[in-house]
Amino acid sequence: MFEARLANGNIFKMIVESIRELVVDVNIDCSTEELSIQCMDSAHVALVSMSLSQSAFDHFRCDRSLSLGLNLPNVSKIFKMMGRDDTMVLKAEDSADKLMLMFENDKSGTIADFELKLMAIEAEQLGVPDTAYKCSISMPSSEFQRIVRDLQVMGDTCKISCTKEGLKFSATGQIGTGNILMRQNVASEKEEDHVTIDMEEPVELNFALRYLNFFTKATPLSPTVILKMSPGLPIVIEYPIEQLGHVKYYLAPKMEE
Amino acid sequence: KAPQTRMDAFFAVQ
């Protein structure tokens, strides 16, 4: 039996929103420690890894590890009916052929419940090693969202380069070139406004802007985003969820042959 | 134009 109660159900709704433009069918893996997701987009260019610790939940019981196979467009439709302050309860039997979702609101006294049929989803899992990256940048997630949105008018590809100078986003297209440079900035009192750049060696990689924009759907989950890069490796774009988990996106670079 | 690589070129399928 699996049973989990999340006082701030909105966190789960935001997690669904953060991946639903990348993947259609997804397995949510439940274990005694956490809920987790690993999935790729249909072109296998991007990988999403989500983790939400059992400590995020007010109540968490998982007798036996199981995978909940969900169709995200359907899940998203159900979450549209969840109120902002609702508590969410998830329940599934060990057979995992259906998922019960409940949205409760003490103030209004409403309880909405849904039963969702689950699917058996065959998905390739990748072994993602825990690597030390050459560059690690922490910046406000809203700034990152604005930059990758704005650069779309210039071209399809974004060159991200981390040097002594700072972190530079560049896009080139028919109308010309745009560059946005972020310098290290720790002047603000609010830590979430800081830009910190930790660079062991300069790195420059090219990425599809379309995907970078998909990833910014996770912006409501976290005030900061962490970018990690090493030469010739997929970039990691991490949105920490308080101390309770994360949504991480990995994006394969475009490489010169 | 640089071609797009895929995730499985970097990480092993389990």
Task: Explain what this protein looks like in three dimensions.
The complex is a heterodimer of chains A (257) and B (14). Chain A is mainly β. Chain A contains four helices and 19 strands. In chain A, strands 6-2-3-4-19-18-17-11-15 form a nine-stranded antiparallel β-sheet. A five-stranded antiparallel β-sheet of chain A has the order 5-1-7-8-9, with helices on one face. In chain A, strands 14-13-12-16 form a four-stranded antiparallel β-sheet. In chain A, a hairpin with a 3-residue loop joins strand 18 (235-241) and strand 19 (245-251). Chain A is globular, with a radius of gyration of 20 Å. The mean pLDDT of chain A is 96. Chain B has one strand spanning 12-13. Chain B is mainly beta and 14 residues long. Strand 10 (126-127) of chain A pairs antiparallel with strand 1 of chain B, so a sheet runs across the interface.
Poorly predicted sequence stretches spanning 5 or more consecutive residues of chain B? none
Amount of beta strand of chain B: 5-15%
Helical residues, percent of chain A: 10-25%
DSSP E strands of chain A, number: 19
Outline of chain B, from the CA principal axes?
rod-shaped
Q: Quick one: how many beta strands of chain B?
A: 1
**What's the end-to-end separation of chain B, in Å?**
32 Å
List key phrases describing it.
heterodimer; A: 257 residues; mainly beta; nine-stranded antiparallel beta sheet; five-stranded antiparallel beta sheet; 19 strands; 14% helix; B: 14 residues
Offer a concise description of the structure:
The complex is a heterodimer of chains A (257) and B (14). Chain A has 257 residues and is mostly beta strands.
Secondary structure elements and pairings:
The complex is a heterodimer of chains A (257) and B (14).
Chain A lengths: L1 E5 L3 H10 L5 E6 L3 E7 L5 E8 L5 E4 L3 E6 H8 L7 E6 L5 E8 L4 E8 L8 E2 L7 E6 H11 L5 E7 L2 E8 L2 E7 L13 E4 L3 E6 H7 L8 E6 L5 E7 L3 E7 L6
Helix pairs in contact in A: 1-2
Chain B lengths: L11 E2 L1
